[in-house]
Structure formats: structure tokens, C-alpha cells
């Protein structure tokens, strides 16, 4: 989340940012959501969505924690992978 926050700070126009938090099957709805919500609101303009069973995450190609998928304004995927912030 810190890397995502840094990456967002480098963007001229802030893109719409959705943080998907996978809730494992069988987990109750507050499973670590409070902590992730706190981290998400620290990123200007970001919103968090609970993703029960990882359905949405898989739809966007995420296989590991920290996966980033970036779409341009027309919906074309421009990047998929880890968050890399230039030093």
C-alpha cells in the first residue's frame, strides 16, 4: 500500500483507484478490512472494495498480493504487475 501511495503521488491526474481486498471463503466480513480501509483512505481518491473469494481480483489477473492493473480512460489495460516506484 505504501508503494501504491507513492505511485499515486507521481501521477499528474489522479486515476480512479480501486483497492480490491480479497476475503477468503469462510472469513467473516470484517476480516482485516479495518486495517486495509485505514491504509486505503490514506491514498487520495482511492476506495476499497471487499472481494469475497477473490472473484474480481482473478478477473483482473491478480495472482498475488500487491498486484496492480492499470487501465487507460478507454478501458484498455496499460500495465499489469507489481507496483514499481522510480527512485
Task: Give a structural overview.
With 87 residues, the chain is of the alpha+beta class. Helix content is 25%, strand content 29%. It has helices spanning 2-9, 33-41, 55-59, and strands spanning 17-23, 46-52, 67-71, 77-82. A two-stranded parallel ribbon has the order 1-2. The chain has a two-stranded antiparallel ribbon with strand order 3-4. The longest helix is centred in the middle third of the chain and has 9 residues, at 33-41. The radius of gyration is 13 Å and the shape is globular. The model has no long low-confidence stretch (mean pLDDT 84).
In brief:
The chain has about 90 residues and is α+β, with helices and mostly antiparallel strands. The chain has three helices and four strands. The strands form two sheets. The protein has a two-stranded parallel ribbon. Strands 3-4 form a two-stranded antiparallel sheet.
Counting copies of identical and different chains, the oligomeric state is single chain
> What are the low-pLDDT stretches, counting only 5+ consecutive residues below 50?
none
Q: Give a count of the beta strands, DSSP E runs of length 2 or more.
A: 4
Q: In percent, how much strand structure appears in the residues?
A: 25-35%
Topology as a string of helices (H) and strands (E): HEHEHEE
Write the topology of this structure.
Elements: H1 2-9, E1 17-23, H2 33-41, E2 46-52, H3 55-59, E3 67-71, E4 77-82
Parallel strand pairs: 1-2
Antiparallel strand pairs: 3-4
Question: Characteristics of this structure?
Answer:
single chain, 87 residues, alpha+beta, two-stranded parallel ribbon, two-stranded antiparallel sheet, 3 helices, 25% helix, globular
Amino acid at each position: 500500500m505504501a508503494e501504491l501511495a507513492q505511485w499515486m503521488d507521481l501521477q499528474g491526474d489522479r486515476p480512479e483507484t480501486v483497492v480490491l481486498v480479497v476475503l477468503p471463503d469462510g472469513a467473516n466480513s470484517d476480516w482485516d478490512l479495518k486495517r486495509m480501509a485505514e491504509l486505503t483512505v490514506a491514498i487520495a481518491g482511492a476506495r476499497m472494495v471487499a472481494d469475497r473469494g477473490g472473484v474480481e481480483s482473478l478477473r483482473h489477473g491478480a495472482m498475488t498480493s500487491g498486484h496492480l492493473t492499470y487501465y487507460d480512460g478507454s478501458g484498455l489495460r496499460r500495465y499489469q504487475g507489481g507496483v514499481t516506484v522510480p527512485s
